[in-house]
From TrEMBL:
GO biological process: cobalamin biosynthetic process
Physiological role: Required for both de novo synthesis of the corrin ring for the assimilation of exogenous corrinoids. Participates in the adenosylation of a variety of incomplete and complete corrinoids.
Enzyme class, broadest EC rank: transferase
Positions of transmembrane segments: none
Name of the protein this chain belongs to: corrinoid adenosyltransferase
Family indicated by similarity: Belongs to the Cob(I)alamin adenosyltransferase family.
Lineage of the organism: Bacteria, Pseudomonadati, Gemmatimonadota, Gemmatimonadia, Gemmatimonadales
Record keywords, A-Z: Transferase
NCBIfam families referenced in this protein's UniProt entry, alphabetically: cobA, PRK05986.1
Entries under CDD domains matching the protein: CobA_ACA
Length: 179
């Protein structure tokens, strides 16, 4: 089995839908790929710089950086310009790491919101993803993936909400399951 860039077909994966599991499925790929010593970068839109969940601690032990793109500012603020600026700054970082070719697998967690809320220009985002190196796998997560993103993607999975403990019973988020 080859893990060489020369023989690899880079895929664009999209995990979307209103059920839980989109980001955890992306983390599953991170763990699986780490086993082959792939170089992996995970960038989290929507998350703040203070975010430190189980995955951040575990990834650190694997030598993988999970980067919340919050920078101390708040996402989903009342000020759309502030949200847009944060998204653009995050996207510049993503573009830079695509150009630097440092990662075999790039995970863009909750990127769909930046498109849904109009913080990032969809055509521009899709052009960057389309023109990435042909060996680079990219995983995009978030609800409401747009038709154009779905069209561009190679693998799309929609998580469908059947039951959620908070919705059914008011059970709060559990460490190890949701954070
Ligand atoms: P996870 O990060 O657990 O894989 P996700 O990426 O699929 O979840 P998001 O849409 O990013 O889901 O939501 C983040 C959090 O919101 C998750 O911890 C999830 O359990 C929680 N959540 C999802 N659906 C509901 C719901 N109907 N009621 C309450 N909380 C929910
Ligand atoms: Mg998520």
């Amino acid at each position: 089995m080859s893990t060489d860039r020369a023989t690899r077909k880079g895929l664009l994966l999209v995990n979307t839908g209103n059920g839980k599991g989109k980001s955890t499925a992306a983390l599953g790929i991170l763990v699986r790929a780490a086993g082959y010593k792939f170089s992996i970068g995970m960038f989290q839109f929507i998350k703040s710089a203070e975010t430190r969940y189980g995955e951040h601690i575990a990834a650190e032990e694997l030598g993988i950086d999970i980067v919340p793109l919050g920078d101390g500012f708040t996402w989903l603020s009342d000020n759309i310009e502030a949200d847009r600026a944060l998204a653009e700054k995050g996207w510049q970082r993503v573009q830079a790491v695509i150009e630097s070719e440092q990662f075999d697998i790039l995970i863009l967690d909750e990127l769909t919101y930046c498109i849904t809320y109009g913080w990032l220009d969809e055509t521009m985002v899709l052009d960057v993803l389309r023109n990435r190196p042909p060996w680079m796998h990219v995983v995009v997560t978030g609800r409401n993936a747009s038709p154009a993103l779905i069209e561009l993607a190679d693998l799309v999975t929609e998580m469908h909400l059947v039951k959620h403990p908070y919705r059914e019973k008011g059970i709060p988020a559990q460490p190890g399951i949701e954070l």
